[in-house]
Amino acid sequence: MTREEVIEIFTKTEAMLTGHFRLTSGKHSNRYFQCAQVLQYPHYTERLCQEIAQCFKNAGVETVIGPAMGGILVSYEVARALGVRSLFAERENGKMALRRNFTITPGERVLVVEDVITTGGSVAEVIELVRSLGGEVVGAGVLVNRSNGKADLGVRTEALLTVTVETFEPDHCPLCAEGTPAVKPGSRQV
Question: Which domains does the chain have, with CATH numbers?
Answer without folding.
Answer: 3-177 (3.40.50.2020)
